[in-house]
Amino acid sequence: MITFLSGGTGTPKLLRGMQKVMDRHEIAVIVNTAEDIWISGNHISPDVDTVMYLFAGILNTDTWWGVRNDTFITHDEATRLGIDEFITVGDKDRAVHIARAEMLRGGMRLTNVTTLLCERFGVRETVLPMTDTEVTTQVQTDLGLIHFQEYWIRARGKIEIQKVMRSFSEPPVATPEVLEALEASDAIVIGPSNPITSISPILDCAGIREAIKNKFVVAVSPFIGNAPVSGPAGALMEAAGYEPSAIGTFNCYGGLTDVFVQDTRDPVEVSQSVRFDTLMVDEEKSVALAEEILRLIAKH
User: What are the φ and ψ backbone dihedral angles of 42, each rounded to 5 degrees?
Assistant: First the structure.
């Protein structure tokens, strides 16, 4: 089994290829939940849903969020009625948020909720929230301390950030299911997701670093030069004190990686890295990178 650490865009593009070249029952994904948010009384777990929808075959891969061909009737009407719903939520997507919220309010763990939803969508892979503890990534801005979703969606990432923080009522702890998946894994793949807001929250859950330190770990850089392939990783890396580049990503992971993968076009040099085409612009490119990573793991 291979376990992947994932956020909501870069790593799912790699998973799109992996599910074509692996036994899907041998794929486990530990997903960031520090971007989760309650909106309109419902619980959005954006990274979990992206991974789940991908494996269910219904993800909108034009946007890499939400359900393909969804409608937005409820969102449009709620907005017209004055509801400040700054995240555009599709109708089918909202049904998932409603179901998750009801189950959480009923006392279920997020892990069990996710397993149940995946079963109902026919997902064969194992999808695991990083923790059942509520934890939130916030950024310090001139507007004060705001939720990451406020920064990235409402402000479109256009306001300056000074610091990245995580808030919680109790320190996040990896679930038993997460630790079991890591223990059973032949290798760990840290996908090309945002190192600060997608991967670091996973690594910071108590038990995760200890569980993977003796495993074979492959990490894929989300940077080409000093620009991330997608998303606000550059500004967030700088705010967290890292160079926005492959070397900054490598340093961010603090010596956990056995093999570090860079893009063939990346002008930044990371000692002893390997280079592949990591710009997964279509399914064919995703499959090609997946095959290269599997070859690396097979050689181990």
Answer: -115, 160
